[in-house]
């Protein structure tokens, strides 16, 4: 087994993920590109597990499992935020998100109930 | 070139090609479906690299749960059927950073490993991995369970606007229920 093949695959996938995060304007597509980056890291971990003889066997695969769990949690919270954004502004374009705390609320609703709810 | 090398090359080509389509296609739903192809090819890669349990967890959680969740989000945000024109920003800064990062990492890894070969270790079956998780990595495992609970609570709080409102609207909503 030549380890350079999966390593280069992972590097190219990571580059594609970075490109997607910077290029895409739709929030759901940004999350898909983040998944590509997480999978590239998983491939690096699994490949390193076969090439590096660590003190503990199969550490890389255990780490890959942990990263998969983290990705599941991340996608759950991320999609909740995206759907809340869609409910407030009827659009998931990340360019239009007001970053100031009391930015212009186009819909005239009480400003951002979600972050307030999250803090208490 | 052994059989494992040929398989790794083919699956890697499929993964990179479908990954490129995920970030380049103009159909929202097709991006999710190409993501399924990419993650499935990566699961095949894990199988060739003798990571059995990781491969099946990848199929179960990524292809089974995460992509379905993403497709639900695409539908709940009323994505149009057919190509959309407003999905992308102007491309060259992203292509510069992404291409530079990816190709730079690839050159670094090629320089580190050249065309060397290693023998595949013993397979990472569920028994061996479970032994490691519950012996050496028990504390991170427990912390992850707390993190999953926190993410669950956070997602529920985020998606229920009636939780944590100021007092006066909460009062009449409480009376309604």
TrEMBL record, chain A:
<keyword id="KW-1133">Transmembrane helix</keyword>
<dbReference type="GO" id="GO:0048038">
    <property type="term" value="F:quinone binding"/>
</dbReference>
<keyword id="KW-1003">Cell membrane</keyword>
<keyword id="KW-0813">Transport</keyword>
<keyword id="KW-0520">NAD</keyword>
<comment type="similarity">
    <text>Belongs to the complex I subunit 4L family.</text>
</comment>
<keyword id="KW-1278">Translocase</keyword>
<dbReference type="InterPro" id="IPR001133">
    <property type="entry name" value="NADH_UbQ_OxRdtase_chain4L/K"/>
</dbReference>
<dbReference type="Pfam" id="PF00420">
    <property type="entry name" value="Oxidored_q2"/>
</dbReference>
<comment type="subunit">
    <text>NDH-1 is composed of 14 different subunits. Subunits NuoA, H, J, K, L, M, N constitute the membrane sector of the complex.</text>
</comment>
<protein>
    <recommendedName>
        <fullName>NADH-quinone oxidoreductase subunit K</fullName>
        <ecNumber>7.1.1.-</ecNumber>
    </recommendedName>
</protein>
<keyword id="KW-0874">Quinone</keyword>
<dbReference type="GO" id="GO:0030964">
    <property type="term" value="C:NADH dehydrogenase complex"/>
</dbReference>
<keyword id="KW-0812">Transmembrane</keyword>
<dbReference type="GO" id="GO:0042773">
    <property type="term" value="P:ATP synthesis coupled electron transport"/>
</dbReference>
<feature type="transmembrane region" description="Helical">
    <location>
        <begin position="6"/>
        <end position="22"/>
    </location>
</feature>
<feature type="transmembrane region" description="Helical">
    <location>
        <begin position="60"/>
        <end position="83"/>
    </location>
</feature>
<feature type="transmembrane region" description="Helical">
    <location>
        <begin position="29"/>
        <end position="48"/>
    </location>
</feature>
<comment type="function">
    <text>NDH-1 shuttles electrons from NADH, via FMN and iron-sulfur (Fe-S) centers, to quinones in the respiratory chain. The immediate electron acceptor for the enzyme in this species is believed to be a menaquinone. Couples the redox reaction to proton translocation (for every two electrons transferred, four hydrogen ions are translocated across the cytoplasmic membrane), and thus conserves the redox energy in a proton gradient.</text>
</comment>
<dbReference type="GO" id="GO:0005886">
    <property type="term" value="C:plasma membrane"/>
</dbReference>
<feature type="region of interest" description="Disordered">
    <location>
        <begin position="99"/>
        <end position="120"/>
    </location>
</feature>
<dbReference type="InterPro" id="IPR039428">
    <property type="entry name" value="NUOK/Mnh_C1-like"/>
</dbReference>
From TrEMBL, chain B:
<dbReference type="Pfam" id="PF00499">
    <property type="entry name" value="Oxidored_q3"/>
</dbReference>
<dbReference type="InterPro" id="IPR042106">
    <property type="entry name" value="Nuo/plastoQ_OxRdtase_6_NuoJ"/>
</dbReference>
<feature type="transmembrane region" description="Helical">
    <location>
        <begin position="6"/>
        <end position="24"/>
    </location>
</feature>
<protein>
    <recommendedName>
        <fullName>NADH-quinone oxidoreductase subunit J</fullName>
        <ecNumber>7.1.1.-</ecNumber>
    </recommendedName>
</protein>
<keyword id="KW-1133">Transmembrane helix</keyword>
<feature type="transmembrane region" description="Helical">
    <location>
        <begin position="55"/>
        <end position="79"/>
    </location>
</feature>
<keyword id="KW-0472">Membrane</keyword>
<comment type="function">
    <text>NDH-1 shuttles electrons from NADH, via FMN and iron-sulfur (Fe-S) centers, to quinones in the respiratory chain. Couples the redox reaction to proton translocation (for every two electrons transferred, four hydrogen ions are translocated across the cytoplasmic membrane), and thus conserves the redox energy in a proton gradient.</text>
</comment>
<feature type="transmembrane region" description="Helical">
    <location>
        <begin position="91"/>
        <end position="110"/>
    </location>
</feature>
<dbReference type="GO" id="GO:0005886">
    <property type="term" value="C:plasma membrane"/>
</dbReference>
<feature type="transmembrane region" description="Helical">
    <location>
        <begin position="31"/>
        <end position="49"/>
    </location>
</feature>
<dbReference type="GO" id="GO:0008137">
    <property type="term" value="F:NADH dehydrogenase (ubiquinone) activity"/>
</dbReference>
<feature type="transmembrane region" description="Helical">
    <location>
        <begin position="137"/>
        <end position="158"/>
    </location>
</feature>
<keyword id="KW-0874">Quinone</keyword>
<dbReference type="GO" id="GO:0048038">
    <property type="term" value="F:quinone binding"/>
</dbReference>
<keyword id="KW-1003">Cell membrane</keyword>
<keyword id="KW-0520">NAD</keyword>
<dbReference type="InterPro" id="IPR001457">
    <property type="entry name" value="NADH_UbQ/plastoQ_OxRdtase_su6"/>
</dbReference>
<keyword id="KW-0812">Transmembrane</keyword>
<comment type="similarity">
    <text>Belongs to the complex I subunit 6 family.</text>
</comment>
């Amino acid at each position: 087994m030549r380890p350079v093949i999966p390593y280069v695959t992972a590097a190219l996938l990571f580059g594609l993920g970075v490109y997607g995060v910077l290029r895409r304007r739709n929030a759901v597509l940004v999350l898909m590109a983040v998944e590509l980056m997480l999978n590239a890291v998983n491939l690096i971990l699994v490949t390193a597990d076969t090439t590096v003889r660590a003190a503990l066997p199969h550490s890389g695969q255990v780490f890959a499992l942990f990263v998969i769990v983290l990705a599941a949690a991340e996608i759950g919270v991320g999609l909740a935020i995206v759907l809340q954004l869609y409910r407030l502004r009827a659009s998931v374009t990340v360019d239009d998100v007001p970053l100031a705390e009391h930015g212009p609320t186009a819909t005239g609703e009480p400003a951002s109930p979600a972050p307030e709810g999250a803090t208490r | 070139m052994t059989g494992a090398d040929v398989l790794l090359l083919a699956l890697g080509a499929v993964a990179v090609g479908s990954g490129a389509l995920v970030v380049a296609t103009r159909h929202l739903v097709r991006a999710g479906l190409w993501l399924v192809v990419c993650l499935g090819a990566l699961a095949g890669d894990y199988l060739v690299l003798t990571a059995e349990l990781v491969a099946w967890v990848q199929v179960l959680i990524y292809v089974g749960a995460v992509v379905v969740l993403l497709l639900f989000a695409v539908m709940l945000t009323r994505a149009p059927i057919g190509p959309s024109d407003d999905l992308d920003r102007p491309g060259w800064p992203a292509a510069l950073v992404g291409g530079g990062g990816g190709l730079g990492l690839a050159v670094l890894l090629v320089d580190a490993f050249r065309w060397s070969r290693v023998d595949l270790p013993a397979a990472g079956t569920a028994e061996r991995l479970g032994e490691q998780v519950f012996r050496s990595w028990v504390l991170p495992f427990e912390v992850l369970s707390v993190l999953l609970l926190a993410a669950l609570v956070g997602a529920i709080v985020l998606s229920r606007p009636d939780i944590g409102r100021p007092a006066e609207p909460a009062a009449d909503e409480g009376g309604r229920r």
